[in-house]
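User: two proteins, same treatment. go.

Assistant:
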Amino acid sequence: MAVREDDTARWRTARFWIGVVALLILAVFMYFFQPVEDYLVASIPKIHFFNIVFWCACAVAVIGYAVAHWQSFKQYIFSASGDIDTDALVFNALQIAILIAVVFCAGATLQALELLAADIMQTGPELEENFGSRILAIIVLIILAALFYLLHYAVRAVRAGWKPRRAPRRSGPGA
């Protein structure tokens, strides 16, 4: 009985998701295990668990950056038989860096929202003096994430070649 490609791909996908679930279980266990928190606080200065959302976003960004560059190099350098497409490699690296900036901005936005919500829950209905600066920081982070995302699409458009679109012709009695 021969193994088909789609069965192999399905098994790889299942193995990948089992690994992701195992890593999530390990991360949750380590988050609630007090000796791990004590070790991290003692080993890494200025790390606190109130900003864990941003630390997770940083870990995702760094791992994503490494994996994306490895796949890019594998595609454009290692598998290329003597003919390296440097333009595609540069555009791909630029797109990766811009998308990682979006991940950083999104993580910082989530962390700022979490800190604002915790602050509101602790102080009650009265607002503190730094409430406006926290709202402004959230708005600026959202704008930065949107700008980086638009920059990503601009880089994709330059890579594919910018083709201006014309308005479609009107058909009917007034045309």
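Protein 2:
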Amino acid sequence: MKIKNFMAMMIAAASLSVGVVSCGDDDDEDAPAATDVKSLAETVSGTYNGVLSIQMMDMPFSDTVAYNIKKVDDSHINLTIPSISYMTMEIPSVEISNIEVKGTASAATASVAKVEGAITVEGEEKSYTLTDILVNCTDNKAVITYSITYGKMPRPMSCSFEGTK
């Protein structure tokens, strides 16, 4: 009799432990697969089309342009500022490399205090200085602001872009 009770208790204990372990439903069906997760830089990467507004002295100007953001790695991007035709000036496009992106996929920010360089245009070297570069991406929208001094311009142009992917 003792052996029957002992065996019954062992079977009950084994059944209970198997039942408790196998009954847990902790699978998160809504979570994306590991391959579906995009890096922050990949999320903001793309071509943004919209309006660039330029302010220099008392001469406002706007144009429809496209800014390109490319992923470098999971947390860095390259930003291509498009060429601009402003009054009698032709300002060529400039790429700013390896900008760190911070934030979340729905609200990412990248900034650079200052970038200097030179571009050869029609055989003449022209310097440029970009300052206070700020990229804000929210969902599929981008707001990009910066100031640019190009060539022998006496004052910087303030640029503000708003566009969508």
